Amino acid sequence: MPVKAYDMLAHTLTRAGIPGPKALQALRHYVVAGEVDRACDVAFDMYRTSEDWEGRIWDELMQIALQEVGLADPYAVEQVHSLRKIKETTEIYNPAGGGMHCLCFVQAIRYLCACGRDDSLEAVTREIRGALDGGAQPVIPDFCYDHHTRLGVEWGRTPLDFLDPDGGSKVVPALEGVAEPYIARLREILTPEYGHGEKFKAPGYIAWEHFNARSGVSADLILAAFQKCIRRAMEREALMVACDGFLSGRDFENYFFNRMVIMSIEDIGMGDPNCHRLMAAYRDSRTYFPDDPDTRLMYLLQGVRYLCSCKKERATELIKGIMVKEFAAGKVPEMPE
Fold first, then answer.
1. Are 228 and 144 in contact (CB under 8 A)?
2. Which phi and psi angles does 333 have, rounded to 5°?
3. Spatial distance between the Cα atoms of 272 and 307, rounded to a whole number of angstroms
4. Domain-terminating residue out of 86, 114, 142
5. What would the pLDDT profile of 233-286 be if each residue is shown by its tens digit?
6. Which of 65, 90, 114 is a domain's end point?
7. CB 323: neighbour CB atoms within 10 A?
């Protein structure tokens, strides 16, 4: 197993002679306490020690944003990730003069110190993981068996059923009055194709139907339940499905993180127009922790919690679906006079 950077640095001293673990604990303590100047002093000592130590500053700040600030300011994760990417692409490491690298971590510290605190994620993660390890099974509600799954296709479910008021596309809490005209239009388009008992030809998750998650549940159902439970704000069910998939391997993990980015546009839409930035930050932030599955799992579960809490509307996805059908039938765009 690769040795974590944290473990290697644990046996070194900062330039001021502070043991690695003590410096990291001090940085977190001061940030959580909102003590900007002391936190910046600790971080600058770490920064001027080495580039490896600079990396640990950022790892710690990213984990503070996720674990200590949490849903008190969900966008803290995006702020810290963005600043880390900026420093990586702007200037070189400059411990003597500080430079842009120093500016970025000072800005991140100031931002985090000003945030509220919600450290509930660790307890939620521990409870969900413990339930699965204890033999609990993820719940797959009936509405997940839609035309995207093998069983849903066998049962005759189609894209038209998906649009039913209690079908797989239902969102909670819904941003009322936004998607309804597009649902009506798409139903009108799909009725000649699927309104007389015709079967849908291929499930959306067909490549997954021959695999099972750790729980033994078919992978296509796990993927379907992940998105549809989030759509309905069924937080615990979604967290159980997400954790089960995550523990089943990197293919599930990668799928879930990419799917959350898609959902931020497809299902959240104008409920939170900036949500795609946050979900992309969750997805990309976890790549800094390749040997730390606990942190990667927390990024996933926090993303699920946030998506469940959002107001939702699917007009963007519906407009896309309408255009695909209408242009395939020969529609051309109108031009201004």
1. yes
2. -70, 145
3. 10
4. 114
5. 999 999 999 999 999 999 999 999 999 999 999 999 999 999 999 999 999 999
6. 114
7. 12
Expressed as residue numbers, the domain containing 288 is 126-322
Q: Which two tokens stand for residue 294?
A: 């606990």
Nearest CA among 277, 329, 328, 327 for reference residue 303: 277
Q: How far is CA 264 from CA 150, 247, 313, in A?
A: 25, 23, 10
* Burial classification of residue 183, based on how many CB atoms lie within 10 Å of its CB (0-12 exposed, 13-18 middle, 19 or more buried): middle
**Would 333 be classed as within a structural domain?**
no
**pTM listed for this prediction:** 0.94
Nearest to 111 by CA among 61, 47, 183: 61
120 domain residue, yes or no? no
Q: Is residue 63 part of a domain?
A: yes
Q: What is the mean pLDDT of residues 168-174?
A: 97
Which tokens sit at 216? 């033994």
DSSP 98: -
Tell me, what CATH number does 318's domain have?
A: 1.20.272.10
Which has the minimum average pLDDT: 16-25, 88-97, 202-211, 216-225?
202-211
Q: Are 108 and 130 contained in the same domain?
A: no
Only one residue has tokens 């998906």, namely: 162
| The pLDDT of residue 197 | 67
Rounded-to-integer distance, Cα 64 and Cα 66, Å: 5
Same domain (yes/no): 234, 156: yes
